[in-house]
Write a structure and sequence with these properties.
Length: about 210
């Protein structure tokens, strides 16, 4: 790739470069299967949480713990990050490498902000509300579910950051495009999971 095409690739790739090769299409299909397995895993964690949500063992209840403004802010951050990842894929389909990198960087920043709020939330629970992993069955289920999701977000942030580096060194090709596409699929998946967590864990905890 010449320097003239460093920021805007024009005419060198098809409209959907992630599907330009058999390997790329197989990566997308394989990742759908992986997400199916992840959905089953999170479904199990949700079922466990719902079964244990009232087993507080004289510890703090969900209504006493949760602060909806903090979790609502975290939700907005993650939803906006999902939107920026959509913009990134649109830029990739336009072969606009510069815009693709910018939107991916914004997605990473929003993901880091979400993690910052979640870490702050966990710190408040442990340090000031005597609510830790072993406080009760409810606390164990809560930290397992929400923490497992947070670990997925952290993995996604690292993954997308690595891809941004590859886009700077290798550019947008039929090899890097499928990687970007499946990372966006992953990011949308963890955003959808968080919407369920916000509804089932936090909203239901406050009203229930």
């Amino acid at each position: 790739m010449t320097s003239a095409h460093a920021d805007h690739v024009n005419g060198e790739l098809p409209h959907e470069p992630e599907k330009a090769t058999l390997e790329g299409r197989n990566k997308v299909l394989g990742f759908w299967l992986f997400l199916g397995g992840e959905a089953v895993l999170f479904g199990t964690l949700f079922a466990t949480f719902l079964a244990l949500r009232n087993q507080t063992n004289d510890g703090p209840t969900a209504n006493e713990l949760f602060s909806l403004p903090i979790t609502a802010a975290a939700t907005l951050l993650l939803l906006f990050s999902s939107l920026t990842s959509v913009f990134a894929i649109q830029a990739m389909h336009r072969h606009n490498l510069k815009s693709l990198r910018i939107w991916l960087v914004i997605t990473v920043v929003l993901g880091l902000a979400f993690l910052g709020l979640e870490i702050y939330e966990f710190y408040e629970y442990v340090a000031h509300k005597n609510f830790g992993m072993t406080t009760s069955a409810f606390s164990s289920a809560f930290f397992t579910l929400v923490g497992f999701h947070g670990a997925h977000v952290a993995f996604g942030v690292v993954w997308i950051s690595i891809l941004i580096g590859q886009l700077f060194t290798k550019g947008l090709t039929v090899v890097t495009a499928p990687k970007v596409y499946v990372s966006a699929m992953y990011w949308h998946f963890i955003d959808v999971v968080w919407v369920f967590i916000f509804s089932v864990v936090y909203l239901l905890g406050k009203v229930g």
